[in-house]
Amino acid sequence: MSAAVVLLHGGGISPWMWEPVVQLLPDFRCLTPRLPDLDSVEAIAEAVASLLPGPAPVTVAGLSLGGQVALAP
């Protein structure tokens, strides 16, 4: 199985923004979830964490709100 990459979109945008990047990463399993509309970055981070594929290492990147979620503890 290829390595997983999670790409988190910015606020006011949706996962479509990552389509050109996903096409440049054919050797990776790219996940581009739609961020839920929740009250805090931490709550969004918890929701995204529940979508991650198992215990294997995952690379997470984000833009704007997605970046805040990626860096949330």
Structure description:
29% of the residues lie in helices and 18% in strands. By secondary structure, the chain is of the alpha/beta class. α2 (41-49) crosses α3.
Strand percentage lies at: 15-25%
Give the beta-strand count: 3
Query: How many H/I helices?
Result: 3
Helix content: 25-40%
Low-confidence stretches: none
Element string (H = helix, E = strand): EHEHEH
Q: Biggest β-sheet: count, sense, barrel?
A: 3 strands, parallel
Radius of gyration: 12 Å
Structural class: alpha/beta
Give, in spatial order, the strands making up the sheet with the most strands: 2-1-3
Q: What is the terminal-to-terminal distance?
A: 27 Å
| Overall average pLDDT | 92
Tally of individual domains: 1
* Spatial shape: globular
List the helices and strands and how they pair.
Blueprint: E1 4-8, H1 19-23, E2 29-31, H2 41-49, E3 58-62, H3 65-71
Parallel strand pairs: 1-2, 1-3
Helix pairs in contact: 2-3
Task: Give the structure's gist in a few sentences.
The chain has helices spanning 19-23, 41-49, 65-71; strands spanning 4-8, 29-31, 58-62. By secondary structure, the chain is an alpha/beta fold.
Give me some keywords for this one.
73 residues, alpha/beta, 3-stranded parallel beta sheet, 3 helices, 3 strands, globular
